């Protein structure tokens, strides 16, 4: 029995103050958010099928095989219950809006999903809560009897020990742990690629990893209230409308992801509508990519809602869609008044003439865009006229991309008329337009003559230019700092320098044959030519010796010819030619020459190749002999003149007389004694 002294208050001054456990608060907030997000996901699933987004002609709660009765699907992945999830139900598929149209579940995924059955969100949250609680040893009261249990077991613990006791903290649950438990809860195989990235990097790239709406749900659940991941790339995965809904529900409870890539994800109208509904509640998203999603003008209202209502959206990429005329009309109305969007990518959206004109006129009133990409559309003459009116009024646009927009020599002057009066543009891209070389030169001349323009980069690639264009660019770069990328430079046939024909060209002949025939025409023995090349007298000829000797003989052989000679004659591959190798090469080549001559004589003809080679070598020998004779005669005349006049042969040099000085060197004595 424990006696309590009620007259004396308990002294708690020495105990540590109660500190709030951050793990309890953070984990509880995250668990609540996960539970709310999972509830919203299931509501989205019900709405998706009730609205008939998979097939407008069927109501899957009333038709045979729907969820209201016995499942008719060959793979029933959900347990029959009134509150079960609709994620794995069997539905009819369509080509665009169906969440299951191109999604594939492997047999292993199916077996896991069917074995797990349906579990509510509360079971997952309860499981996560248990994983965060500290492990505290407890006494098992069931195994001990009331007679043997000691109720006063801890009564003798000193007060100082109690004062120093610190209660165990709850651990903060990690995103990877939530993901693996969510996969186990939903019967999905966890992606090791995702687990590795969320533990090591702030950027998660799951592009082209065969994700589907089945695998997107646990991934989205794991990112609820995540405080680490800032970039999420899901491009190239067929997640469908349901996958986009899961992402939207997750983004309502995530404040760290600032860049989201959903390009080529087949989200459809339902997925885009879900994003337009959820993303305005997110305060961190600033870059959104939704390229190659087959959006048309019927979905432009949701895109406009994203631009208007997402508070911190700065970059929007919508390339490779099909917005068309009606889409451009509605989008241009929003751009006229929008000031928050800084980058807009609309490449390859089938904008032609009138729709392009509306977008270009929106630039006139827009005061927020810094970069606009309209490449691979069809502005034409009408779009250039609209730009001529808009560019002088715009003061914020820095980068304009008009690549491949059917801007020809007729439409280009209108564009240049507005360009020379614009003061903000720093980068202009006009590549792949049919403006020809004259149009490229007109662009450079316009920029050179406009003193107010601030362009620092000009791209006109895939447009052929000429020498005059390069001269204009050089003059422009002398005036201002600008980088110009252009196509290949063409040369006119008139501008080509005609090279004179060299009658002594030996490129078409075998260089070894040239040496052998040269010896025969110049009446040289093989030993004489070898010794002429071997200047060092070591019995070996290197390629340097060969080069010097050929130059002295006046043979116009190139470096390639010398390489061929060394390769054909140097059989030992030691880098030198000895006399034996030289003799073998001369014998083999003589046989080839005799065979060619004999073959042509049998046909009653003459070998024209050998005839021309001998003619060239004969002219070279005569030219060399003539040059040597002139040098010899000049040397003789100079010597005779010097001997007759008694003056030095070198003019302007005076003879200096010097005294002869004799030096006497005395050999030092080796004795160590002192000098007497």
Short description:
The protein has 676 residues and is mainly alpha-helical. Helix content is 44%, strand content 6%.
Explain this structure to me?
This protein has about 675 residues and is mainly alpha-helical. About 45% of the residues lie in helices and about 5% in strands.
Main attributes of the structure:
two-stranded antiparallel ribbon; disordered N terminus; mainly alpha; disordered C terminus; 676 residues; eleven-stranded parallel sheet
Give me the secondary-structure topology.
Blueprint: H1 22-50, H2 107-116, H3 121-132, H4 159-163, H5 175-186, H6 192-200, E1 203-205, H7 213-222, E2 231-233, H8 240-251, E3 259-261, H9 268-278, E4 287-289, H10 300-309, E5 315-317, H11 324-337, E6 343-345, H12 353-365, E7 371-373, H13 380-390, E8 399-401, H14 412-419, E9 427-429, H15 436-449, E10 457-460, H16 467-479, E11 483-486, H17 511-521, H18 526-533, E12 540-541, H19 543-553, H20 559-569, E13 577-578, H21 579-602, H22 608-645
Parallel strand pairs: 1-2, 2-3, 3-4, 4-5, 5-6, 6-7, 7-8, 8-9, 9-10, 10-11
Antiparallel strand pairs: 12-13
Helix pairs in contact: 1-3, 1-8, 3-5, 5-7, 7-8, 8-9, 9-10, 10-11, 11-12, 12-13, 13-14, 14-15, 15-16, 17-22
């Amino acid at each position: 029995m424990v006696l309590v002294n009620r007259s004396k208050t308990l002294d708690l001054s020495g105990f540590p103050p109660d500190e709030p456990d951050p793990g309890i608060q953070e984990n509880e907030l995250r668990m609540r958010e996960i539970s709310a997000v999972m509830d919203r996901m299931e509501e989205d699933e019900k709405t998706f099928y009730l609205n008939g987004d998979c097939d407008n002609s069927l109501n899957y709660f009333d038709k045979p095989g729907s969820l209201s009765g016995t499942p008719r699907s060959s793979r029933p992945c959900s347990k029959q219950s009134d509150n079960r999830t609709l994620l794995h139900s069997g539905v009819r598929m369509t080509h665009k809006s169906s969440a299951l149209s191109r999604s594939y579940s492997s047999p292993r995924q199916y077996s896991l999903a069917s074995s797990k059955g349906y579990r509510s969100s509360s079971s997952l949250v309860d499981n996560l809560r248990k994983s965060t609680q500290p492990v505290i040893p407890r006494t098992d009261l069931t195994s001990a009897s009331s007679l043997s249990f000691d109720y006063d077991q801890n009564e003798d613990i000193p007060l100082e020990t109690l004062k120093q006791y610190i209660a165990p903290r709850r651990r903060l649950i990690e995103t990877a742990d939530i993901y693996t438990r969510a996969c186990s809860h939903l019967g999905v195989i966890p992606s090791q690629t995702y687990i590795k990235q969320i533990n090591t990097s702030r950027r998660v790239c799951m592009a082209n990893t065969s994700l589907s709406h089945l695998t997107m749900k646990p991934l989205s659940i794991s990112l609820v209230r995540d405080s680490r991941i800032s970039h999420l790339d899901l491009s190239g995965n067929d997640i469908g409308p349901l996958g986009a809904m899961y992402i939207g529900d997750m983004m309502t409870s995530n404040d760290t992801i600032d860049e989201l890539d959903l390009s080529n994800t087949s989200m459809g109208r339902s997925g885009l509508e879900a994003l337009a509904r959820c993303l305005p509640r997110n305060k961190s998203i600033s870059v959104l990519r939704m390229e190659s999603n087959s959006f048309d003008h019927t979905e432009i209202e949701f895109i406009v809602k994203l631009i208007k209502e997402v508070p911190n959206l700065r970059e929007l990429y919508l390339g490779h869609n099909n917005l068309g005329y009606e889409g451009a009309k509605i989008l241009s109305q929003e751009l006229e008044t929008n000031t928050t969007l800084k980058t807009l990518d609309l490449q390859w959206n089938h904008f032609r003439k009138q729709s392009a004109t509306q977008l270009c006129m929106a630039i006139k009133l827009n005061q927020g865009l810094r970069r606009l990409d309209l490449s691979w559309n069809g502005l034409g003459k009408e779009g250039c006229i609209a730009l001529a009116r808009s560019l002088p009024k715009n003061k914020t646009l820095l980068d304009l991309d008009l690549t491949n927009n059917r801007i020809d020599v007729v439409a280009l002057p209108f564009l240049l008329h507005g360009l020379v009066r614009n003061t903000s543009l720093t980068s202009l891209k006009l590549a792949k337009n049919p403006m020809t070389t004259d149009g490229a030169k007109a662009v450079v001349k316009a920029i050179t003559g406009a003193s107010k323009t601030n362009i620092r980069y000009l791209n006109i690639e895939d447009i052929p230019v000429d020498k005059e264009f390069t001269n204009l660019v050089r003059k422009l770069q002398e005036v201002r700092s600008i980088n110009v990328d252009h196509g290949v430079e063409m040369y006119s046939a008139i501008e080509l320098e005609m090279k004179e024909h060299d009658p002594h060209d030996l490129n078409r002949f075998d260089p070894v044959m040239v040496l052998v025939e040269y010896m025969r025409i110049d009446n040289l023995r093989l030993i004489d030519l070898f010794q002429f090349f071997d200047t060092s007298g070591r019995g070996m000829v290197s390629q340097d010796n060969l080069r010097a000797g050929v130059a002295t003989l006046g043979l116009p052989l190139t470096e390639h010819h010398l390489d061929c000679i060394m390769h054909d004659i140097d059989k030992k591959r030691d880098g030198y030619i000895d006399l034996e190798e030289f003799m073998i090469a001369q014998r083999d080549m003589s046989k080839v020459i005799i065979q060619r001559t004999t073959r042509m004589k049998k046909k009653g003809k003459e070998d024209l190749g050998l005839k021309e080679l001998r003619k060239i070598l004969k002219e070279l020998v005569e030219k060399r002999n003539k040059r040597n004779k002139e040098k010899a005669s000049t040397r003789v005349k100079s010597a005779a003149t010097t001997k007759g006049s008694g003056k030095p042969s070198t003019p302007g040099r005076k003879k200096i007389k010097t005294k002869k000085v004799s030096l006497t060197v005395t050999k030092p004595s080796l004795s160590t004694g002192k000098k007497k």
